[in-house]
Write a structure and sequence with these properties.
This protein has 372 residues and is mainly alpha-helical. It has one domain (4-362): Orthogonal Bundle (ADP-ribosylglycohydrolase fold). The protein is built from 16 helices and no strands. The longest helix is centred in the first third of the chain and has 19 residues, at 55-73. The chain is globular, with a radius of gyration of 19 Å.
């Protein structure tokens, strides 16, 4: 049974981890603990009254919008056309490279009509380069060989949406997540982690699995799905180490140092699995652990938040991580759209959209609703 709290928790949780880690993303550990105390950053560092999100949450939202447009334009039929996600990313690219918000002009995502998303938030060079190149990457024909974490940090919506859509096997869902990452990141250590995260989120949100159990199931699936990939051995070994360290209750920083810094996809996911697994019932502690290290703090925080949000649901996220979160209402609105049954907005006979607001969002892309 679908649980709205888990859909909302996954997206809000990811944004919360992103916003908590964003101010310390490029700081070493000595600098973090000197600035925020021996326990590190635990509260949002507000800018003009809000906890700013980074490109991680921006791209997660555009991934979700692309999924919803694909389902809408495809009349709810699976498999979805991944080109709609690519087109949505092209709109995200505009928000990062054009100097100011454009009210008019053709769009492939209604999110391009949200002025607050037109903010340069240190987007990854691999994502920018791949999008500017104009060629849609695939696993079979990669546009590069990057193993950066920009592929895995944005695909959580695939894991909550596709299982609820129905008609797909878990392998289908996992591979769609991998293909979504491969649009911009062609290395197997970039798209295999995306498949594993999608698998985990799917089990957490829809099957009631616990984080470490979901991780072990996802590792086994990856070993089968990517058996021919050159780095499957090292990748699954790293993931298994993350699970073991979490089960053993290893020291936080020592474990994170053993797993990497998170700038690349496999390490970012491994750190998140450790943090979410060790502190599976304590969202705040998991997030704090995920961001207070010398690596890619916002991405490891975001992925940890996606995992625990999908597991615990929105009600388990402390209010302090919700109240001042930038674009909170937009994030919740997108989560609600992911939760909605696509059959509710389509005519059963013609497949045409019958809900006027949905049509504005995912057909015309002219929506000017709750986000203002």
């Amino acid at each position: 049974m679908k649980d709205l709290s888990k859909y909302r928790g996954c997206l809000i949780g990811g944004a919360a981890g992103d916003a908590l880690g964003y101010p310390v993303e490029f700081l070493g550990e000595d600098a973090i603990f000197h600035r925020y105390g021996r326990r590190g950053i635990r509260e949002y560092s507000l800018y003009k009254g809000v906890a700013q999100i980074s490109d991680d949450t921006q791209m997660t939202l555009f991934t979700a919008a692309g999924l919803l447009r694909a389902a809408t334009c495809g009349a709810g039929q699976v498999p979805l056309d991944i080109r709609y996600i690519w087109q949505s990313y092209q709109d995200w690219l505009r928000t990062q490279t054009e100097q100011s918000f454009r009210e008019q002009g053709p769009r492939d995502s209604w999110l391009a009509g949200v002025p607050a998303l037109w903010s340069d938030r240190a987007p990854g060079s691999t994502c920018l380069g791949a999008m500017m190149g104009g060629k849609m990457g695939t696993i079979e024909a990669p546009v590069n060989h990057s193993r950066g974490c920009g592929g895995v940090m944005r695909v959580a919506p695939v894991g909550i949406y596709l299982p609820g859509l129905g008609g797909l096997s878990q392998d289908d869902v996992d591979m769609f997540g991998a293909r979504a990452a491969a649009l911009t990141h062609g290395g197997d250590l970039a798209y295999m982690p995306a498949a594993v995260l999608v698998h985990m989120v799917s089990l957490l949100a829809h099957a009631g699995a616990a984080p470490l159990d979901a991780a072990e199931d996802a590792i086994a699936a990856a070993q089968r799905l990517f058996a021919d990939k050159p780095h499957i051995g090292p990748f699954t070994a790293l993931m298994e180490r993350a699970v073991s360290l979490a089960r053993e209750g290893a020291d936080d920083l020592k474990a994170i140092h053993a797993l990497g810094e998170g700038w690349v996809g496999d390490e970012a996911l491994a750190i998140a699995v450790f943090c979410a697994g060790k502190y599976s019932e304590d969202f705040e502690k998991a997030l704090a652990t995920a961001v207070n290290h010398k690596g890619d703090s916002d991405s490891t925080g975001a992925i940890t938040g996606n995992i625990l949000g999908a597991y615990l649901g929105l009600d388990a996220i402390p209010q302090k991580f919700i109240t001042d979160l930038e674009l909170r209402d937009v994030i919740l609105e997108v989560a609600d759209d992911l939760f909605r049954d696509i059959r509710e907005v389509l005519d059963a006979g013609t497949g045409r959209v019958t809900d006027s607001v949905w049509e504005e969002k995912y057909v015309r892309m002219t929506y000017r609703g709750r986000h203002g």
